[in-house]
Amino acid sequence: MRRIFAILFALCLCLSLTAGVMAAPYADISALFQYWEEFGYPADVAGVYSTDGSAENLTVMLIGDNDGSREAEIRAMLNDDSGLTVEAGSYSQERLQSINQEISEFYMFEGSGIYGCGIGWGQDGGFGASGSEFRVVVTAEEDRVEEYRSMFSRIYDDAVVVEAGQPPVLTMEEELQLGTELPEAPEGHDLYGDLSEEPIEAPQKELTEGAAAEKAAPENGQTPGNADASGMSTATVLMIVGGIVIVVLVVVILLRRKKK
User: Fold this and answer.
1) DSSP conformation class of 68
2) Torsion (CA) 149, 124, 138, 167 in degrees, nearest 10
3) How far is residue 192 CA from its own chain's centroid?
């Protein structure tokens, strides 16, 4: 009887250790958002914003999650999913970042009339069917807004929104640090490019499962891809192995006592 009780106790201990390490890898949506910010967004995430102004309640915009399976997958990654809200999105965060960088590098130069660009909402709020989606928002001289709208819509469709704005006002200290002149246009690039040819669209990456794994990984070697899949880490494996070792030791001790 004692032998059976000891075996059952050891099995319960092992199962409790395994259940503990197999729990959701992220405490809440805020923790998962911080992970994405540091190591890169999945290819089907269009952006994240605060639902109510707090850091605990966040809305995640997903691309193509018509059956809700991706939402369920994300919720399963959270110990507490009460702060998560999901909406539909059109452009991945990765795609918007690529467009934003391209405009900054090739279209913002002295005389271009572009004052700035960034990812987010415009002067009148968000975009898309939900009214909350992000776009690359370009601020330009008022008399060039329509020209840039026409050009960027041919290149990027509706991923870029152009709005009228004012040039940034620099303090004397900022002028001394940054200089008052913008760089010249890159060689081979004029303001509007060669409009006689079809515009070259920035490369758009495929939505593959391994896309996130190409991002920089944490020091322990865990990538965003394998973290999302199971949350297993070196510590997790060690805890599981430890539980198994305990069970084996208990069984060995009991068998030796039985022989005596």
Assistant:
1) S
2) 120
3) 32
Q: Rounded CA gap, 22 and 165, in Å?
A: 51
pLDDT digits (tens, 9 = 90+) for 197-249: 444 444 444 433 334 434 444 444 443 433 443 444 455 556 676 667 676 77
Q: Tell me the C-alpha distance between 183 and 198, whole Å.
A: 26
Element housing 136 (H / E): strand 135-140
Cβ-contact 140, 114 below 8 angstroms: yes
Closest CA to 179 of 103, 116, 110: 110
Determine contact, residues 191/29, Cβ cutoff 8 Å.
no
Is residue 83 within 8 A of residue 31, CB to CB? The reply is no
Task: Report the Cα 232 to chain-centroid distance in Å.
Answer: 20
Distances in whole angstroms, Cα of residue 178 to Cα of each of 100, 111, 138, 181: 21, 17, 21, 8
Q: What's the rounded Cα separation, in Å, for the pair 104 and 116?
A: 8
pLDDT band with cut points at 50, 70 and 90 for residue 144 = very high
pTM of the model as a whole:
0.59
Taking the C-alpha atoms of residue 138 and residue 145, their distance in angstroms, rounded to an integer, is 9
1-29 residue pLDDT tens: 555 555 555 555 554 444 444 456 999 99
- Could you give the 3-state DSSP secondary structure of residue 163? strand
Q: Which residue has the higher pLDDT, 236 or 37?
A: 37
Q: Are strands 84-88 and 58-62 parallel, antiparallel or unpaired?
A: parallel
CA distances, 87 to each of 19, 37, 64, 69, 251 (Å): 31, 19, 10, 13, 52
Nearest to 54 by CA among 76, 82, 78: 82
Identify which of 142, 92, 91, 99 has the alpha carbon closest to the alpha carbon of residue 117: 99
Q: In the structure encoding, which two tokens stand for residue 168, read together?
A: 């940034």
